[in-house]
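Section 5: illustrative case.
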């Protein structure tokens, strides 16, 4: 079993639903004018989407964002996940079981979207190249680190923290150019992380202790680190869109 697949398949769908809630969003929230902070993240991304578009959700997780795009933007969404459990849990939209590191689409899409999923992928430039013949626009929502930040990778989560230059370099010598770029400031990032951690931890505490293992155990540790550890202002968030030239 692939290391990432095992990472996502250790815990049951039932327990993930307790932690994530009915809408099954598994990404950092965005503090906004009320509402579901996790849905706020997807709402912001959706402003970059045209109505009635075809979307490839790359690393679709448990399907929360895809369902939002279908309901609110009338999009035709296909998800890609490496997780067998995530794949088996989704029956209300099309989903492909595959590894995005090697996936080459056979259909055309208006958008390919990565919501905190590219961070888990080794070679983003190759991934974009694999998509380029079939995808018009690329949208990425992800972590970003300052140039001076020494933390390039978190081994426990298999997460790559890339710089602004790294993100721009992904599209050098490709058919795409970045036409939208937004980066959060440290105070905004910490507010988003802290409120997300509070909600995850509250839900994790609803589970019996014997169910807190694997990724759920790491998530609980992550929440405590955010809420009670030193603040890391060197890692923030970026939202960008690149379109065919």
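Designed sequence:
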């Amino acid at each position: 079993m692939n290391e990432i697949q095992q990472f996502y398949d250790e815990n049951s769908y039932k327990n993930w639903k307790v932690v994530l809630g009915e809408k099954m969003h598994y990404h950092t929230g965005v503090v906004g004018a009320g509402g579901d902070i996790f849905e706020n993240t997807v709402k912001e991304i959706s402003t970059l989407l045209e109505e009635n578009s075809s979307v490839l959700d790359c690393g679709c997780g448990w399907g929360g964002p895809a369902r939002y795009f279908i309901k609110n933007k009338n999009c035709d969404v296909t998800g890609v996940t490496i997780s067998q459990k995530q794949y088996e849990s989704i029956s209300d939209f099309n989903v492909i079981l595959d590894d995005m590191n090697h996936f080459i689409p056979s259909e055309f899409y208006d958008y390919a979207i990565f919501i905190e999923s590219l961070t888990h992928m080794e070679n983003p430039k190759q991934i974009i190249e694999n998509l380029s013949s079939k995808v018009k626009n690329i949208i990425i929502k992800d972590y970003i680190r300052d140039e001076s930040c020494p933390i390039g990778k978190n081994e426990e989560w298999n997460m790559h923290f890339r710089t602004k230059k790294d993100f721009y370099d992904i599209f050098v010598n490709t058919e795409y150019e970045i036409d939208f770029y937004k980066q959060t400031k440290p105070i905004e990032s910490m507010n988003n992380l802290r409120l997300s951690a509070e909600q995850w931890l509250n839900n994790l505490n609803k589970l019996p202790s014997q169910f807190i293992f694997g990724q759920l155990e790491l998530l609980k540790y992550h929440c405590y680190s955010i809420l009670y550890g030193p603040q890391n202002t060197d890692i923030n968030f970026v939202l960008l869109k690149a379109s065919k030239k």
